[in-house]
């Protein structure tokens, strides 16, 4: 926790903490593979860090994050992806033949956070009281999304929207997407309680795995469906809803009209009776499931719940959050996912130091005896 009293004030403590963190991370980045950063001579473990005339490091947190994750990242068309799951077993997944997305799209993809509320952590920060342990799930999710965009070079926006007077706050989604989609090939939206399971896995690889095609304006995962309560996540035709907590929105010839119809749905403009979903659950999600996807069925890609919804421990529909996790409950686990991702990236270069004996830090004691 940052100091709240003392002659130098909280910002001095923040600067000192940030400086130590930068030096720590930079020290381990020095032993990354040569394409990212040249190795230092084995005779030393010291890292020189150039500073500006103001005394601050030239290398900012943006570049540190990119360098930190560089050894872990895979190519958009990498034939397979391996990971160790919660059961500690190795799982390998393969892409279909002839993947569509072979190059990084960078700033053609927008990661979008959308809120009507400010981040509580920002108020704490401004008062010199920022503490990771106090971070709520909203800030934890937003930070995770932002870090993910930095790792892969995607664009990022945090949009503060005003609430409607006559409908639930989640109805801000269609208009926010419409205001930005023309500037991008894809917008990837996540609720604050949703997160990418693997920070080093690029969206392009997931698009290939899910086989998202040019005609797919919207890609969403299904909600869990329980045969004991079949009506809970189903529309009037007993079809399972798709969840709008994670959406891949593609800029094509149908997207703007779909967003317009969705935004105007509770006004009963095109769909009489849609005003039913102004306030009751699941608001804009119910409207999309009840109306939009039926008129635009060829342009909606529905993923299985296990692929991009839910989290470990959910048995219904096997909603385990294979690639994208959505913590409808136990929302603080967003922070745990972020911790695990960052610690994996930091400890990998540390392990490399010991495995390769960088700098000669490991010595062999051949005889267990006192020196003469």
UniProtKB/TrEMBL annotation:
<keyword id="KW-0808">Transferase</keyword>
<dbReference type="GO" id="GO:0016757">
    <property type="term" value="F:glycosyltransferase activity"/>
</dbReference>
<dbReference type="InterPro" id="IPR008630">
    <property type="entry name" value="Glyco_trans_34"/>
</dbReference>
<feature type="transmembrane region" description="Helical">
    <location>
        <begin position="12"/>
        <end position="31"/>
    </location>
</feature>
<dbReference type="Pfam" id="PF03407">
    <property type="entry name" value="Nucleotid_trans"/>
</dbReference>
<dbReference type="GO" id="GO:0000139">
    <property type="term" value="C:Golgi membrane"/>
</dbReference>
<keyword id="KW-1133">Transmembrane helix</keyword>
<dbReference type="InterPro" id="IPR005069">
    <property type="entry name" value="Nucl-diP-sugar_transferase"/>
</dbReference>
<keyword id="KW-0472">Membrane</keyword>
<feature type="domain" description="Nucleotide-diphospho-sugar transferase">
    <location>
        <begin position="171"/>
        <end position="299"/>
    </location>
</feature>
<dbReference type="GO" id="GO:0006487">
    <property type="term" value="P:protein N-linked glycosylation"/>
</dbReference>
<comment type="similarity">
    <text>Belongs to the glycosyltransferase 77 family.</text>
</comment>
<keyword id="KW-0812">Transmembrane</keyword>
<dbReference type="InterPro" id="IPR029044">
    <property type="entry name" value="Nucleotide-diphossugar_trans"/>
</dbReference>
<keyword id="KW-0328">Glycosyltransferase</keyword>
<protein>
    <recommendedName>
        <fullName>Nucleotide-diphospho-sugar transferase domain-containing protein</fullName>
    </recommendedName>
</protein>
<comment type="similarity">
    <text>Belongs to the glycosyltransferase 34 family.</text>
</comment>
